[in-house]
Amino acid sequence: MRTVEEALSRILTQARTSPTEQVPVERAAGRILRDAITTGRDLPPFDRATMDGIVIAYAAFAAGRREFTLTGTQAAGQPALALKDSDHCAIEIMTGAMCPDGADTIIPYEEVELANGKARIAANLKVERGQFFSSSGG
Predict the structure, then answer these.
(1) Which of the 8 DSSP states describes residue 130?
(2) Which CATH superfamily is domain 1-138 in?
(3) What distance in Å separates the CA atoms of residue 69 and residue 118, rounded to the nearest whole number?
(4) Is 119 helix (H, G, I), strand (E, B) or coil?
C-alpha cells in the first residue's frame, strides 16, 4: 500500500501541462481554465439572508425580548430597510435579501409564531448573533 504522499508524487510525475492559448469567451465552452478568476469586490457586495424568517437586533433577544412588532418585509432585490426600533421591532426577510440596517440575526420562520403583526420567539430557543447571515466580507 502507498502513502498519500507517494500516490500524489506518482500522479504528478504523469501529469502533463497543456499549452495555454487565449480564446474568445464564446469559444471557451468545454475548455479548462488555467488561471483563477477573481473580482475586485465581493459578489454580491452586501450582507444577505441565507434563510427566510425574521431579522432582529441580537441585543434585544439577549436582553430577554421574545416578542417583536413586524414593521416590513425585506425582499430579495430590494434596497436595505432599517429596523425602526431595534429593541422592539423585527422585519420579515427572504433568502438572498439584503440584511436591514440595525439587524444582525435571523430567526427562521419555523422557530417563530406570527400573529397580529407580531413575531413571537420561543423562550428556550438557542439563538446566536449573526446566525443565517452571509457576510460580504467587505
Answers:
(1) T
(2) Molybdopterin biosynthesis moea protein, domain 3. (2.170.190.11)
(3) 5
(4) strand
More confidently predicted of 16 and 83: 83
118 against 123, higher pLDDT: 118
Evaluate whether 97 touches 76 at the Cβ level (below 8 Å): yes
What are the angstrom distances between the C-alpha of 71 and each of 11, 51, 97, 104, 124?
59, 19, 16, 16, 24
Query: What does pTM read for this prediction?
Result: 0.71
Q: Are strands 67-74 and 89-93 parallel, antiparallel or unpaired?
A: parallel
The CA distances from residue 81 to 64, 77, 99, in Å, are: 24, 12, 8
Q: Are 102 and 84 within 8 A, CB to CB?
A: no
Domain ranges across the chain: 1-138
pLDDT category at 137 given cuts 50, 70, 90 is low
Place of cell 406570527: 114
What is the number of other CB atoms lying within 10 angstroms of the CB of residue 66? Answer: 13
Task: Report how far residue 130's alpha carbon sits from residue 127's, in angstroms, rounded to the nearest whole number.
Answer: 9
| Residue 69: pLDDT band with limits 50, 70, 90 | very high
